[in-house]
Amino acid sequence: STIKMNVLPKILYLFQTIPIKIGKTFFDDLNKIVLRFIWQGRKARIKLKLLQDARIRGGFALPNWEIYYQATSLMWIKEWITLRNTRLLILEGHDLLLGWHAFLWYGGTKTQGYFRRHYIREALFLNWQKIKKQCYLKIPTWVSTIEAFS
User: Structural domain of residue 145, as residue ranges?
Assistant: First the structure.
């Protein structure tokens, strides 16, 4: 609970305010630091996956940093889809030829490389592609993007 109360809010704040591309090694290093704190430098007796599993399923509900990172990137993508925060859309999309919706569902970002030149858009788009690949079959095709994020 110390990690959830002290470390998690600070990490979440960083994830929410700085949406950059973070590699797998960052999350691995963060997990190693947390495990070293939990086990006080001794050998771990419980696997990390069990520690990060939900309490309902018998885990210890330790934060899975990568899932939190993906969730915070979905918050930014929600702003793209709902089109409510016009200042953000103008700031990030000043050089776009197509709308934001087109790039989320359209596979033509390779032909229109200007979309991925922006480092925030690229990080969010890569996370969106990863999440879409995991969950695409679970989302009905008749659901619009606004309904999915509401």
Answer: 1-149
